[in-house]
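User: Round two. Same drill as before: sequence, then structure, for each protein.

Assistant: Same drill it is. First protein:
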Amino acid sequence: MTRTALTAAALLVTVCVGASAETTADTGTPTTSESQDQTSRTSTTGGARTDVKGAIEGSLRLLLLEHLGRIAFQEKTRRELSGPFFTDYAHSVHVPDHWSDGDGWFVNYVGHPIHGAAAGYMWLDHDPHGWDEKLFSGGYWASRGRAAAWSAAFSLQFEFGPLSEASIGNVGMNPISRGWVDHVITPAGAFALMVGEDALDRSFLKWAESRTANKFVRATLRTAGTPGRALSNIANGRAPWFRDGRPLNWDGK
């Protein structure tokens, strides 16, 4: 079977999983409409335990968005969609033997931490206590540590798994691209970025929003200031600026 057919089938399965998750979700699940901001995230997490199934489904939607973006905007990825799927996939999976993977500084040290943070926030969205912990408390560090571990697993799948850069685009077949950088920077950068975004959101962004009722300004500040959370929101079918219990029209008090 050709790579194109298998890739299309894999992406179709991912779409179906995402669609199924949206269809079977509770009626309280936020949508991209402004009314979503009135909905509590507890309707999607529920219970006292992390909804691992929901985190997997959300991560699959995030994975779908990222691979569709690669196919749409990277000619080198589209070029590798033909040929024997399993043979080329096997030839693309290697243990890294150097640091750099040939990508630019911005991709490795900005783009990958954002992508990792989005996966981490996907976990927190399904952790019933992920958003309740006091900033920098013991429970907070534990929750962000679990989110970073989820991000590391997501990154490993993104690099080597059946729905990965290795299987879709044959990243790794070229020896230059076999670097450690993504495996280290994605989870470590995700952890740092989540902590930074949390601190920024709970301090500066709330402060700024208390001084303006302009929804456009509030939405722009949230989206630009917390890109990892924005990407996770999009994958979850929410507006990028979504905050549970803090709609854009909140009174700022």
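Second protein:
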Amino acid sequence: MAAHVKPSGFTLVETMIVVTVIALLAAIVVPSFLRARKRSQATSVKNDLRLIDAAIAQYAMETNKATGDSVDVDDWLDYVKEDSRLASTGQDIFGNDYNDQVVDSLPVVPSQTCNALSDVVDADFWAPYQCETIPRSKHKNRPHGHH
């Protein structure tokens, strides 16, 4: 009497079920991951704004600038920590320029950056900063990171 031996391995149906379950899990997780990534980028931009604000204040104190005076990118970048993306480019994580600033005025989020992140953060997230409505000029003439 020969015993009937069942072949080992997975059937096509079992394999298809596993692939379907993995695809469903990926469909659930990937959008959450992308949203978390954009939130992290927004936080990076907000941190840049804090650094720019502090750099402008330091520059204004050391150069006796008055409220409302313009501060060129070249000038405030000198007060940002060297060897950082911000110090070497004057741009946010998306490559958008922060531009010139004004003494005793908060720096603004570049409008392109606001638009790129509008699906994950609202105006309340940026407080006390605001999204740029009128682009400021940019006076950046020298490479940064080497003062």
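The chain has a mean pLDDT of 89.

User: Perfect.
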